[in-house]
């Protein structure tokens, strides 16, 4: 987290399945709304943490299936693994914490004696997590009995039942809540405690997150009965916990506004993108341009010479644009290509989103901006790394000076425009 020189203004800690990700939303609309909000207004000075029951294998699979932006921190395998950044660097200190009074071999030995437990796939069996499926009506008995057996073998374990089917055996010091507590203590030691923390969840294995002192919490509208019951029994009078009226990521956006934690108007919710540009940040500029290009190709923007002229007016006459293919163009002239692609994605599931944006000041009015830009057209996804220099020397509007794009993940086979 070295990129933040001071305390993060907001740290969002969110579960993924049915919280950040709505598996009933084929258009991924709420997720796209959140992505645009985060990259435009929060990426520079805040932290995004994904806290999921998924193993690293299934987490990476979800990232290929859904348009998730890159978190600063990933808490996986029900709080037994913590990694940092795009490279997913593991936290060795957390591993040492979990090794106390834990023996995976003993857990496997004793759980094998319970016929009610059906072992999950090998990808879900992790160094500090042993996972099963169990029928709901048998879960309570198995949990109570297994706890006593493992305690008798000298282990300190925690058994978490969630989703009406998943049973995880973890070290007692593990879990989503303990992983978050560990991170908060770590930030405190480094002198960078978050100004505000918002935890977000929908199921039983998220309950621990809401128990951390001082945090705000949102149970999305589609939260499961097990989490709502926990809330009714343990925190119904806590004004810092909201049961949102919106589903999944839209409920998270709702909570940001409800608790007054910062801006909660996603650039995707602004009908006229142009009115949301003036006096904006470099992040907002990049997000808005991607939305403008998306709308142009979906034919949601009228094809006019005025539109093309407006884009040209925001570019430096001597600036250049390097296409991912390596071709070098004058940036003002390259804008002309937009005439050819107006409406080429009309009626299709076509979206563009920005990820992992970092704006570095080069002076009082100039920035070096780097981010990943992704295009999703139906089931096909392609992306590139964008490095741009923009300035605000003569007006409240940004001028694009130079743009250099390079392919991401073998995307060169696709048709890439801007």
UniProtKB/TrEMBL annotation:
* Record-listed E.C. numbers: 3.1.3.24
Q: Which cofactor does it need?
A: Mg(2+)
**Cross-referenced CDD domains:** HAD_SPP
InterPro entries named in the record: HAD-like_sf, HAD-SF_hydro_IIB, HAD_sf, NTF2-like_dom_sf, SPP-like_dom, SPP_C, Sucrose_Phosphatase, Sucrose_phosphatase_pln/cyn
The protein's UniProt keywords, in alphabetical order, are:
Hydrolase, Magnesium
What pathway is this protein said to act in by its record? Glycan biosynthesis; sucrose biosynthesis; sucrose from D-fructose 6-phosphate and UDP-alpha-D-glucose: step 2/2
Q: Which residues form the Sucrose phosphatase-like domain?
A: 8-260
Q: Which domain of life is it from?
A: Eukaryota
Q: Which reaction does it catalyse?
A: sucrose 6(F)-phosphate + H2O = sucrose + phosphate
Residue intervals of the Sucrose-phosphatase C-terminal domain:
282-409
Per the UniProt record, one Pfam family is S6PP
Is this entry keyworded Transferase? no
List this protein's GO terms for biological process: sucrose biosynthetic process
A GO term, aspect molecular function:
sucrose-phosphate phosphatase activity
Top EC category: hydrolase
**PANTHER family attached here?**
SUCROSE-PHOSPHATASE 2-RELATED
UniProt record similarity statement: Belongs to the sucrose phosphatase family.
Function in brief: Catalyzes the final step of sucrose synthesis.
Its quaternary organisation is: Homodimer.
The name on file for this protein is Sucrose-phosphatase
| Source organism of the structure | Glycine soja (Wild soybean)
